[in-house]
Amino acid sequence: MAATIIDGKKIAETIQQELAEEIKQLQAEHHLTPGLAVVLVGENPASKVYVRNKNKACHDIGIYSEQHNLPQEASEQELLALIQQLNHDDKIHGILVQLPLPDHIDEHKVINTILPEKDVDGFHPVNIGKLMIGEKGFRPCTPFGVQKMLSYSGVPIDGAHVVVVGRSNIVGKPIANMLLQKQPDANATVTVCHSRTKDLAAITRQADILIAAIGQPEMITAEMVSENAVVIDVGVNRIEDPASKTGYRLVGDVKFDEVSQKCKAISPVPGGVGPMTITMLLYNTVESAKQSLER
């Protein structure tokens, strides 16, 4: 029997409608419009598409957004000065510097310069530390999106065995920490697997919830999952496809065609985690605006 499809696009639309209502309320009661500044350095085509999508999403729900473009050869100092300027701008509640950055700019220095209370990407060490100890802070958008997808889909997380394949700072480590917390939509038993894990399939088959975030096209096959598993595919990989107009197609880290015939529920690529990532960026920006009222 084919798996239930976890529709990230639909869940993202639901959350965005809720955010649009919150924004109307903030405007009516506090004359406050959440503001997001996006900084793009250089001409990376994928980054330009992401930024365009983020700006459109902001516009659609009523978030004020501004875009700052710096040339590829902009110095690290110029970028840090721009971030400091945005740190002190009261109409901006979230600052997002689109990654990757050119090689001559230190990514860590850039992330550390953003005020933690405006770090809506959730990458600042202060927010990562708060995540570790279960304190309120901004969660990285992709893992936060995964958690919301599970919650909105009614997947029981409390007491479940979650297996995360991948240990990146952007997805693997944060989602493992988030689902481990003694909090709602968490309380799971979490196993983290990676490239050095022995007998990976024996571990992934034990998962009630399997989260694939390893960056290897279609690596997770049907024999690696159980019939009762909920599979969340975080991977986005381009593979050559001569039949496609673009010459490539997008696939996840999971072999969708075969795994979807075996497991209980699965998120597709595209249309799964992707729309959730942008939505959680909007969510964090609205949260930051609400918190600014308390400061």
From TrEMBL:
Pfam families assigned: THF_DHG_CYH, THF_DHG_CYH_C
Gene Ontology MF term list: methenyltetrahydrofolate cyclohydrolase activity; methylenetetrahydrofolate dehydrogenase (NADP+) activity
Gene3D superfamilies the UniProt entry points to: Leucine Dehydrogenase, chain A, domain 1, NAD(P)-binding Rossmann-like Domain
Residues binding NADP(+): 166-168, 236
Keywords: Amino-acid biosynthesis, Histidine biosynthesis, Hydrolase, Methionine biosynthesis, Multifunctional enzyme, NADP, One-carbon metabolism, Oxidoreductase, Purine biosynthesis
InterPro entries for this protein: Aminoacid_DH-like_N_sf, NAD(P)-bd_dom_sf, THF_DH/CycHdrlase, THF_DH/CycHdrlase_cat_dom, THF_DH/CycHdrlase_CS, THF_DH/CycHdrlase_NAD-bd_dom
A Gene Ontology term for the protein's cellular component: cytosol
Residue intervals of the Tetrahydrofolate dehydrogenase/cyclohydrolase NAD(P)-binding domain: 140-292
Family per record: Belongs to the tetrahydrofolate dehydrogenase/cyclohydrolase family.
Name this protein carries in UniProt: Bifunctional protein FolD
Gene, per the UniProt record: folD
